[in-house]
Amino acid sequence: MSDDTEYKDVVIIGAGLSGIGAACYLKRNCPSKTFSIIEARSSIGGTWDLFKYPGVRSDSDMYTLGYKFKPWEGAKAIADGPSILNYIVETANENNILDKINFNKTLVEATWNSNNQNWQLIIQDSITEKQKRIDCNFLYMCAGYYSYSNPHSPEFPDIDKFEGEVIHPQLWPKDVIYENKNIIVIGSGATAVTLVPELATKAKKVTMLQRSPTYMISRPSEDWFANLMKSLFPKKLAYSITRTRNILFQEYIYKKSRRHPNKVKKKLLDGVIKELGNEVDIEKHFTPSYAPWDQRLCLIPDSNFFNVVKNKTANVVTDKIKSFDAKGIQLESKNRLDADIIITATGLNLQLMGGARVKVDNEDVDFSKLWTYKGVMLSSVPNFVSIFGYINASWTLRADLISQWVCNLLNHMDDTESTSVVPKTTDDHLMSARSWIGDFSSGYMERAMKDFPKQSDTQPWINSQDYRREKKLFNQPFHNDQELVFSKGIT
Q: What b/e readout covers 119-158, taking b as 16+ CB neighbours within 10 angstroms?
């Protein structure tokens, strides 16, 4: 390990949507702070640089997925991956962030030292595998929520017998030729419903093979309200108005789904019937067994998924896989599907803290034993914030809130000459433990919740996933917060 230890006031882990936003807020609101960004890959953008599969796009509108401080000016509210990546790169360039990024560097271990009141970070070069140390007072995790190198890939029986290509969308190769091919897409989530209509433009036939259906809703890719606002007002005001309107609409749909699930279910299924009529068995292929928003809704821009099902260039099969063979998949129903290419859109593996080992005074941190403070900090872990966005709305809405809160926290620490801040619980035995994300049955969440911090049912030990509630929660003055302990100097 190199002996030349750097020091920064703040180190941000990750140069994706969250990390670039966090850096912009730091530059604007904490101009005296020195900071750097540690990025494991060779480029910025995170998810929007990693995913290369055909048709990759957002499933949130860009007026809420975009940053609060930078208006989205694209024509489409439901944007494709390259457009979103360009937006992130443009933001970094406009705010002179690129020179703050250390590319091809991975955080291996982070240790808080109470004597020195700082974090000691072990950073490994992703190419040379050499390690160096960086010290910082405040560690800011923006590494995303899933493993970039290890997607969720179930063990399918006899998959090694299949003679065609098997591809996971997260690891999409550059040289895939799918023109005039028979393709099976395994899965029914956002990635699958994005892939199917795009593949259907060139493939011979595309089959989406699902174990169970997902709720789908069609929306125009262009937002008429946003375009109207752009024609009436300056772009920043137009963006702000549209953003507020879309935030409220997202909240309305989510809360109505929780309060009146049967009504929302009927409305969603009526929409599918209107799109497909008698073309398919709606009950079998498009009626989930769970309530709306127990999992994320699949957004269908411009009805593209429904259109390829109607014109029969794609179809949906609801069944379970019995086994693979040389030419395709044998189903439990005794039917079989032939394929040249099989795409396993089977989801993500959630990953805590970018996979880094975290210690406090040389003791390993077991996140599952800790309580989450407002969904951003951890009980007994000083000077540490991690961004995890909304699962029931646009990710960046929460990332923006947290970034502003962090800047306010750092400025408060300067004002009070504090060198550390740590959330402390006083009545653990009286707190009711709940999953860090509750009431959400998606497989990728359920697989990982046992490893995540706990939340309680009282503030501030909650992860509410409620934007307007959290706006109030994050605006509470620090001097009134009894659960945050600020310290000066050596503890």
A: bbbbbbeeeeeeebbbebbbbbbbbbbbebeebbeeebee
Do residues 184 and 199 make contact, with C-beta atoms less than 8 angstroms apart? Answer: no
Could you tell me the strand order of the sheet in which 328-331 lies?
321-325, 328-331, 336-338
Q: Please, are residues 190 and 299 in contact by the beta-carbon 8 Å criterion?
A: yes
DSSP H stretches of helix in 95-234: 190-199, 224-232
Does the domain spanning 6-149+349-487 belong to CATH 3.50.50.60? yes
Mean pLDDT of 359-366: 96
Is 70 exceeded by the pLDDT of residue 416? yes
E strand residue ranges, 355-483: 357-360, 363-364, 372-373, 377-378, 384-386, 420-423
Give yes or no for residue 2 having a pLDDT over 80: no
Tokens read off for 368: 């599952």
Choose between 489 and 23: higher pLDDT. Answer: 23
- Which pLDDT score, from 0 to 100, does residue 3 have? 56
Amino acid found at 327: K
Give the integer Cα–Cα distance in Å for 205 and 183: 6
Q: Peptide bond preceding 301: is omega within 30 degrees of 0, i.e. cis? A: no
Return d(Cα 199, Cα 148) in angstroms, integer: 23
Res 482 pLDDT > 70? yes
> What is the reported pLDDT for 4?
74
Q: What is the DSSP string of 4-44?
A: --EEEEEEEE--SHHHHHHHHHHHHH-TT--EEEE-SSSSS
Name the residue ranges covered by the structural domains of the chain.
6-149+349-487, 159-226+260-344
Radius of gyration of the chain measured on its C-alpha atoms: 24
Please give the CATH number for the structural domain made up of 159-226+260-344: 3.50.50.60
Cα 381–Cα 386–Cα 391 angle in degrees, nearest 5: 135
Beta bridge partner(s), residue 378: 372
pLDDT band at 487 (very low <50, low <70, confident <90, very high): very high
Kindly state the helix (H) or strand (E) to which residue 486 belongs, with its residue range.
strand 484-487
Q: Is the pTM of this model over 0.70?
A: yes
